[in-house]
Specification:
This protein has 166 residues and is mainly alpha-helical. The protein contains 9 helices and no strands. Helix 5 packs antiparallel against helix 6 and helix 6 packs antiparallel against helix 7. The termini are far apart.
Length: 166
Amino acid sequence: MLYFCVFLGLATMYRFLAVLIHAFVGFWLAVAPVRADFDSGLSAYASGDFDTAAREFALLAAKGDKEGQYHLGLLYEEGQGVSKSYAEAVSYYTRAAKQGYVDAYFALGEIYLRQPGGKRDRVAAHYWLGMAARHGHPRGPDEFKRNRNAMTPEQLGLAEKIFVAP
């Protein structure tokens, strides 16, 4: 740092530090509201204020925030603060999963196992639970094995073409 001061001069160093500080503050101001919205949504969810939680998570989801997308998916799956919709839940979970959100992998696997009307898509569940297991979800390996053991040979054959087991 001393060499930098001597070489460029003290005034130049101060300008350089001012630019660094402005960049850091700008970054923090850009990220802080997103975190605050998420914390507000989580707090509202924990206190049972699902309408507020849905609003906060919807704002985040619209910005492409994977945690907001995942949590909005939870609300749609349970019908809390929004109308219950498995299709919307799957849509938001999928958006979060495409960004590598491990809980979304697991949620998709689970939702494909208990769709309304008793339908099950064990092949899709195999894929998503396998992704959860492969990426370290704590319940992923057990649920992956449980689903795999319940699959027919035809389902298993199709699933193995789509996804290689962890």
